[in-house]
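Minimal example, chain plus calcium ion.
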Amino acid sequence: MKHILIDCDTGIDDSIAILYALKSKTLHVEGFTTVYGNTSSHQAAENTLRLIKLSKCGYEIPVVLGANQNLDGEYGPIPIYIHGDNGIGNVELPKSEQQLRKESAPDFIISKANELQGDLTIVALGRLTNIALALEKDPRLPYKVKNMIVMGGTIGKPGNVNPYAEANIYGDARAADIVFRAGFHMIVVGLDVTTETYLSGHDISVLEKYCDVENRDIVQYIKSALKFYFKFNYESTGCQDRCVVHDPLAMLIAENPSIGEYRMMRAAVEYENKEFRGMIKTDERFISDYNHDEILYCIRVDSDLAIRRLLSVF
Ligand code: BDR
Ligand code: CA
């Protein structure tokens, strides 16, 4: 069993990754911390509470409210045209009775790492603000966790915010630079692989037909939320009735990295130069200091296997 802490900005693709984790027999979710991005941190927490309820996962999971601005004090713009007004495609899920855990996100991350004594995997699906703030409090954090999986960045594909940068990294490039240099055993799952992996309307019809009876509500939710997401994907890529798979792919890799191929590299993130903000600077380009550890950057993935695995838990 893998013990994971999910840091997320609970939008549509985060929500599918979360539901996957909650239904997976090999993942145990130790807690959630939220961050602004697809929606406000507060709305992300609200969505997460409702998704836990929807999943009927059978165990209690703390949800902790995290950063609502990046390290430079910026908030927004919130991409409501991608994830809807409430972050989950305007789908109204039933409210949960569960309350938020009253603790700061960095403290919660640190205490979970201490509690699990080297057995915690952090899965970061949004901006890296909470992780950077936790590092500020405890620079030994990278040596206390097993590893960290980050959805973010691009090295070979165009960015989705500017030509060089992906949204999670761009949104708090300063935090990303701190985290990339901190010494985590880290896998980065970026646009190089997430934009090569597609979930289609056909996949969802198959799921509707063959899902477990107990997961029918989950599948109906995924179908409705994806309707909104497919529309954005069509408008931005011209691809009809399908979407790229960002956060769920990172979650699948967190569960079992063998679906990907990796390149080991030292990397940092540009945060000062406005034009290149959010660009990952690898040691294949110019990077001014190399005195930090290497990370694994996912360069290829078995997309068919990934989609089959994703659907299989439901
Ligand atoms: C990333 O940005 C967010 O919109 C998605 O949830 C994903 O984490 C993709 O660039
Ligand atoms: Ca996300």
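Residues 11, 13-14, 37-38, 125-126, 151, 160, 166-168, 246-247 surround beta-D-ribofuranose (ligand 1) (CB under 6 Å). DSSP finds 13 helices and twelve strands in the chain.
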